[in-house]
Amino acid sequence: MKHFEVNFDGLVGPTHNYAGLSYGNVASQNNANEASNPREAVKQGLVKMKALTELGMIQGVLAPQERPDLATLRRLGFSGSDASVLAQAAAQAPAVLAACYSASSMWTANAATVSPSADTQDGRVHFTPANLTNKFHRSLEPEVTGRILRAVFPGETHFCHHLHLPENDHFGDEGAANHTRLCRDYGQAGVELFVYGRSAFDLSRSAPTRYPARQTLEASQAVARLHGLDEERCVFIQQNPAVIDQGVFHNDVIAVGNQNVLFYHQQAFLDTQGALDEVRRKFGEGELHLIEVPSAEVGLQDAVHSYLFNTQILTLPSGEMAIIAPTECRDTPAVAAYLGQLVQQGTPIRQVHFMDVKQSMRNGGGPACLRLRVALSEQELAAVNPACLLNEALFVRLNQWADQHYRDRLSFDDLRDPALVGESRAALDELTQILKLGAIYPFQR
Fold it and tell me: Is 250 one of the annotated active-site residues of the chain?
């Protein structure tokens, strides 16, 4: 039986804006309050998805969240008509209004943690939506994320969906952005790497002091238990607190893995040697490529600015691996030079493809942030909602849909416009019909 890794990218929502909501994410903060272009953003994402299909990959689409989140605004004391709620929030709590408009669900690396059937005790693919408790605007996502995942991966024969972890910072869970998997083949049992920023219950352990550590050890351990993973196939690695304090808010900003390749910066982990020794032992026999990028070749700030590690590493149908990198990598001299050398080093990575996702990058998310990886067998792939798998017809249809519903400019002042509520709902209502998702949004229920 064949096995595949399918990338499910998040569609950028119609309220994509730059509010600088993510403290600890340097790009998000640096571009706060600039005008965004939602239509360009969704189209950049679609072009990236289409490019992957042209490389021979199977590509899926995940729907965005309903925004603004008027139910949350009403829960916080704003009342009356939708227009009245928006006007009150804009006048009294503009930061709250911006949070309830956030289109951050576009970064589906934070949607959930996924364990393939080859790793789980019951032989099903397991999903746990991330609770994203560290950021208010993202903590609004898990319930609808769970509905979206159930609509894309329906039934219980092949898929097992868990409730997100308790909504408390002790179990702060950021999903696949702090998780990767190493294996010889997608259909064989692999080693799942859970990277955490701090321990919530053992305060004697190291932790960052400037920016928050969003993923806790305890959350990672809970997900591993829920997914029925073998302890001898799990490695829990602490991210270097010093790099979190320099803007590395998730592990996927400093390390990325695919099959038998782990690509990471020299400063990524707190105890690099100990972690990699455990990875080697649990990976077992077979060739394992641990590619460390030295600080002397790519400094940490260049790595963060270019999102060198927020790239996707794909195994192409030819068996070669390719890196999908943002154009910022090409435009950062040290990073471009390193990537030019990497493809000549005899590792499985032989190609680099640059993609323009500037609308996402300016808000703090690169190519890897935009996708949720799901390893599937032929049977499991056949059970996926087929309307959510990208082909030429769906690509054309979604571009037409974006042209019809999305604005080409959005600033904070636009968030008080009640017309934006109707535009967003009309777009999402039509999208659920295109992707055959059913009534996943609160306004539909």
Answer: yes
pLDDT at 34: 79
DSSP E strands: which ranges in 217-273?
234-238, 255-258, 261-265
Task: Return d(Cα 230, Cα 63) in angstroms, integer.
Answer: 32
The residue whose two tokens read 């972890």 is 165
Catalytic residue selected from 100, 160, 329, 369: 369
Task: Name the band, by pLDDT with cuts 50, 70 and 90, for residue 364.
Answer: confident
pLDDT at residue 444 is higher than 80? yes
Handedness of CA 349, 351, 354, 360 (dihedral sign): negative
Element (H, E) at 328: helix 327-330
Element (H, E) at 292: strand 289-293
Contact between 86 and 68 (Cβ < 8 Å): yes
From 250, 289, 305, 405, the catalytic residue = 250
For the segment 213-229, the average pLDDT, to the nearest whole number, is: 97
Annotated catalytic residue: which of 40, 66, 141, 174? 174
Reading the block at residue 127, the tokens are 């999903």
Radius of gyration of the chain (CA): 21
Peptide linkage before 68 cis (omega within 30 of 0):
yes
Active site residue 430: no
**Contact by Cβ (8 Å): 360, 31:** no
What number is the average pLDDT over the span 306-327?
A: 95
User: What is the rounded CA–CA span in Å between residue 73 and residue 99?
Assistant: 10
Determine whether 206 is exposed, middle or buried from the number of CB atoms within 10 Å of its CB (0-12, 13-18, 19+).
middle
Catalytic-residue membership of 141: no
**Residue 23 — pLDDT band, cuts 50, 70, 90?**
low
Q: Which of 356, 350, 298, 304 is CA-nearest to residue 326?
A: 356
**Beta strands 312-315; 321-326: pairing state:** antiparallel
Segment 67-123, tens digit of pLDDT: 999 999 999 999 999 999 999 999 999 999 999 999 999 999 999 999 999 999 999
Q: What is the mean pLDDT of residues 258-284?
A: 96
| Per-residue model confidence (pLDDT) at position 298 | 97
For 112-174, the DSSP string reads EEEE-TTTBTTSSEEEEE---TTSHHHHT-HHHHHHHHHHHS-SSSSEEEPPPPPSSGGG---
Note the maximum CA span of the chain. Answer: 64
Q: How far apart are CA 209 and CA 207, in angstroms?
A: 7
